Structures are given as structure tokens and as C-alpha cells.
Amino acid sequence: MEIKGFLSKKKDIVDKELERLVPPAKTFPAPVHEAMRYSLFAGGKRVRPILAIAAAEAFGVKTADLLPIAGSLELIHTYSLIHDDLPAMDDDDFRRGRPTCHKAYGEAIAILAGDGLLTMAFEVLSDPRRLKSISSNRMLAIIREISTASGAFGMVGGQVVDIESEGKEIDLPTLEYIHTHKTGALIRASVRVGAIYAKAGPRQMASMTRYGEMVGLAFQIADDILDITGKQEELGKDVGSDLEKGKKTYPSFFGLEESRRRAREVADQAITALKDFDRKADPLRELATYIINRGH
Questions:
Q1: Which CATH superfamily is domain 3-293 in?
Q2: In whole angstroms, what is the distance from residue 158 CA to residue 164 CA?
Q3: pTM metric for this prediction
Q4: Is 106 left (phi over 0), alpha (psi -120 to 50) or beta?
């Protein structure tokens, strides 16, 4: 299959869903809605919602009612980017080729825009009008999956350890904790949410979970590599920012070539996890390879 065409098609679907979910920019109070949309529609690849959709489609189910859930994953991801960029956190001036939210709207509105996106995600997830064909038990499982991945045992915990580790010598298990929580937790949850939606059995869920874990780690190793080798105009942010901030990365532990080898190995492990699935899972397989070969 042609993965770029698949990604483009699914991105269009997700973007249309996000347009339906998020109020227009001029909705009162306008500053927060403008800031929310500024970051949400800044050109993201929509990897997390697409992973959820592709995971469900691997089971051969229709995904119309999954779209609000997929959209909520992007709302949470965008909130995390806004907050990560703040001066108190990663202190970044650019994101996706333009000023970060706090540079465009000020720190207070940026914080509130992130808060608004995060809470809106759970407003969407708990709205029965948008989720007509999903049982309450499955919906609760999906909400728990996403909230756990977003909180202190997921993204928040990873960000805390990342901040605490800046400028320090850390060991590999600590680096892997940061990667698998700050980035990997929501990616893993996205895959599992698609599987929950599709009523996966225990063995199928175990396979999808393993895939999600490996593809999440591969994604972050690739990001570490791109922070050194990427082009600023493609990344949309400063190259080498992790090194300047004293962050430990895979290349700082292993060097570039070994990091590339490790990324390929982890992507292969993700693909192997899907060995019991037929060709309907090919988009997931292709996504694992795309993630480590992308230019931004």
C-alpha cells in the first residue's frame, strides 16, 4: 500500500472531525478559542488519531463512531505540545514552523488554551450523542485508557522525569522511562483505543499493546535522531535543542548509527507483533516503517 496517500486521506478525515469538535475562533471568549485553534491546526501529522483508526480497521470494523475519540487524542496531544513549549518547561520559541502558542498569545492564554483542549477531550469522550454505537462499558474503558496515558503515570510523569533529568547524567532505564511515558504512553493508548473500539479479544489486545509500545518507542528514537540530523525548515523548530538543554537522548547514549539500528529493530518488533493479523493491518505495519524514516 502507499502509506503517504493513506496518511493524507486519514488526516483529512481527522481534520474535518476536529473542525466539528472545536468551536470557531471568534466564539466568546475569543482569545482562548483562537489560541486553541492556532495550535490545533498548525499542520500536525495526526499520528495518534490515525493509529487509533488504523488499529480499529485492522479488525475490519467501520470507524465512523471512532472519529470523535480519535479527535480527542489529537486535542490531548496538542495540549501537551502547548504546555511542553512553555518557558517553565522546554522553553521553545517555534513549533511547526511558526511561533509557539505562548509566543503568539502570551503565557496565560497559552496555558488556558492547553487546559481548554485537555478538558474538551473528555467533554467529547463523555458525550453520548457523539458515541451512539459504543457500549457504556467500552466507553469507560476507552476513557480510562486515555486518562491514564495522559496523567502522572503517562505523559505527565514522563515530562516530570524529563525536566528533572536536564543537565544530569542519567542511566538508560531513566531515558527509556521518559520516552515510553512522555511520548510513548499516548501512542500506545491510541492503538489500544482502536482495539477496544473493535472489541478485541485478550490475545489480540496483547498484540496491539506490544505494537503500540514498540511503535511509540520507535517514534521517540526517530525524534532524537531528527533533533541532530533534521533540517530546521522541515522540523519547524530549532535543530539541536535537546543537546543545548542538556537532555540525554538515544544518540547521546549510543551514537547516530546505533540509534538508527535500534529504531529499525524496534520498528521490526512492532511489525512482528501483528503476525496474527491479515492484510487489513498493513497500514499499521507501514506506519511503523514510516515513523522511523520520516523527515520531521
A1: Farnesyl Diphosphate Synthase (1.10.600.10)
A2: 10
A3: 0.93
A4: left
